[in-house]
Amino acid sequence: MLKDIFACPECLGKLSSANGGVRCDRCGKAFQEREGIIDFYVPGGKGPNYSTVLSNIEYYERAAGCYDNRIAGKKMFQLNSDARISGIFSSVASRKTNGVFLDVGCGTGKVMTIAGRYFETCIGIDISPGMCSLCKKNGFSVHRASADNLPIKNESVDMVSSYALLHHVADPRYMFREIHRVLKKGGYFYTDNDPNFYQRATLEKNLLYRLMRRIYNAVSEERFLKKERIKKEVRDTAEYHHFKTRGLKTGELEDALREAGFGEIRIVPHGDVKSLEKNSFAHCPWYTKINMVLAGLTGFDFTYRRIAPMFLIMAKK
Ligand SMILES: C[S@@+](CC[C@H](N)C(=O)[O-])C[C@H]1O[C@@H](n2cnc3c(N)ncnc32)[C@H](O)[C@@H]1O
Ligand SMILES: [Zn+2]
74: alpha, beta or left, given left = phi > 0 and alpha = psi -120 to 50? Predict the structure, then answer.
C-alpha cells in the first residue's frame, strides 16, 4: 500500500525501503522512519507560510500532550461536528469502493476515527512529530510532512480532509495545489471549522465580546501558555488566521481553489450544525447562537452566512 500511494516529496520519485526508512530511487534522498512514522518533512521556504510552519511545529510540540483534553475533546467547541463529518463522508463514500482517505493536519486522528467507517484505507499526515506519535498510538497510519509538500503520488486519493487546518496556514494556495494534485479525478476535498472573517471582524468591534475574550484569556488561555511554556508570538503565528488575521475570507478561498484546478466548489458558512440539509440559525447549538446574536447586533445584520462563526468547504476535482 505504501508503494501505491507514497512518493518522494522532493521529486515524486519512487520510494524503496532503505536502512532505517525509505529512499527515493530518483533523487536519492533518504527519509528516516521511527516507530512506524516516516519523516517526510523537508525544511525550507520563505515568508509567512514558512514561519507559520515553524511556529506550528514548536506550538504542537508543546501542546500535543494536552490536545485531546483541551481542544479536540472539548465538547463545547464541537457539539455537532462528529454528526456533520459523518454525514459528509457517507455521502461521498457511498459512491466509492475501496476508497483511499488522506487526512492532512490529522492531529491525534479524530477525523480518521470517523473516516474509517467509510473508507478502506486512511492515512494521516501532520507536521508535528508529537501529534504524529499520539496519532500512531491511537492506532492510525500516519507520517510526518507539510500540507504544502505531500509525499503522495499524483491522483492516488479519493478524499482529502483537513479539519481545522486552514487557519494554521498563512497562504493556503500551495496546500490547495498539492491536495488537487494528489486527488483522483472526481475526488473530494473537505475542510471545516475555520473562522469566518466576516463574522469575526464584526464581533471584534463588540465591547462585550472583547470583555468575554479577555476573561477567557485570563482564566484559561494564558494559564495554558504558561504551563506548556509556549510564547505568545509562537501561538499567534501558529494559529495564524485566529490571531494575525481575523479569520479567512471565503471569497478569496474560492478563487484560490479555482486557481488550483477545482471545478465544483461549495463553501458553506455554518454555526456547528449537525447536517448540511439543516443549516440555519435554528439548528445551531446554544453557544454559537449567542455568538451569532452578538455579531448580528454589532453589525445590524442578521444574515446567517455573515454571522455564522465558521465555514466548511467541499471541492471536487
Ligand atoms: C487544530 S489541529 C487539528 C487536528 C485534527 N485535524 C483535528 O481536527 O483534531 C491542527 C493540526 O494541523 C497540524 N499542522 C499545522 N500546520 C501544518 C502543515 N503546514 N502541514 C501539516 N500539518 C500541519 C498541527 O500540527 C495540528 O496537528
Ligand atoms: Zn526524490
Answer: beta
